[in-house]
Amino acid sequence: MKRNIQVLLLLLSGAGVLHITLLTEVYLRYVKEGLRIPLIVSGVLLLALGMVGAARDGFPFAKPTAEEPAEHADHDGDHGGGGHGHGHSSGPRIAWLLFLPALALLFFTPPALGAFTAARESDPAVSEDARFAPLPDRSPLVMPLSDFQARARQDTGRSLKGRTVRMTGFVTPGEDGGWYLTRLVLSCCAADAQSVKVRMHGAEAPQANSWVTVTGSWRPVGEVGTDSARAALDVAGMRRVPQPANPYADAVPPTA
């Protein structure tokens, strides 16, 4: 029984990993895009190990091994012969819980991290030696939120002044009734996600977690180059957009 559970776990886990990496793009909700190949290799290895185990044990019609009578004998001895193997029955019941993550990869698509996570993170400290490359000469200027936030808080040259920018993200409600345009930045996987938020002014807050593209101009808040500076935008236009296949954003280095 225990070996059957192990084989099933290997097969289901391998199939689940390959499902989210080869047939869908769900893996992007867990890890960065660059980790797709290692995930595929891992899924293939899990399937291979499961098939080897199934062939070795005759799964799913595994026969009792030579060790099983001895294990039952020891168990009965420990309980005076009156236990009737209740310890062996509780073990497999608990082991079945291990199937839940494997089945989730196949049949359940969890949502990406969103406003709940972002609302609980504060702005990072300002770097004192940040340098920025010149911005392209086009309008509106399409920018990642991470680049806009870094320039709004650290660029003492004020390269955002007078520029019309366009950014895309999801809505995070603020504590005072305002709202933020937000993206989550991954270093490796969802476990280390950090939020990048830009405060929106001049537009009513859409529904939390909805994705929007906004166009507007930089609103200076605080003293640039210090921790008092905040990233903010005066919104001139906004439209709803579908959530992108990759809801997370890679970190954009602020220095040139």
Automatic annotation (TrEMBL):
Key words of the record: Membrane, Transmembrane, Transmembrane helix
TM helices/strands, residue ranges: 39-55, 94-113
Residue ranges with Basic and acidic residues bias: 65-81
Pfam families listed in its UniProt record: DUF1980_C (PF21537)
Region (Disordered): 63-87
DUF1980 domain segment(s): 160-248
NCBIfam families: TIGR03943 family putative permease subunit
This protein's name: TIGR03943 family putative permease subunit
